[in-house]
Amino acid sequence: QVQLVESGGGLVQIGGSLRLSCRASGPTFSTYAMGWFRQTPGKEREFVARITWSGYTTSYADSVKGRFTISKDNSKNMVYLQMNSLKPEDTAVYYCNADSYSGDVSWGQGTQVTVSS
Q1: 20 within 8 A of 7, measured Cβ to Cβ
Q2: Beta-carbon neighbour count of residue 76 at 10 Å?
Q3: Fewer beta carbons within 10 Å, N or C terminal of the chain?
Q4: Could you tell me which residues come within 8 angstroms of residue 42 by beta carbon, excluding any fewer than 6 positions away?
């Protein structure tokens, strides 16, 4: 299974920006797509953005369209989430995710993003 490690979370003011990074290791050749999800206490984990391993196809949750951009660097096995115009409702633990052709799903440990005034 692919191993994922996120970084880049932190505290940011309303309207600010952050870039999350996710490093993938292991059998990345089996990965079909990677994405970002987020979760707040008492709520289910929700989809944020997704990118195919080729990088040709991306998708976003309506709540982040136009503000967040997902990208990847295959040479480094890295996936990024650029988050701009951050809002308090973006506060959450953000998780990196990898879907494999075999159906396996991998998750990172999560990184906290807090948007505050």
Answers
A1: yes
A2: 10
A3: C
A4: none
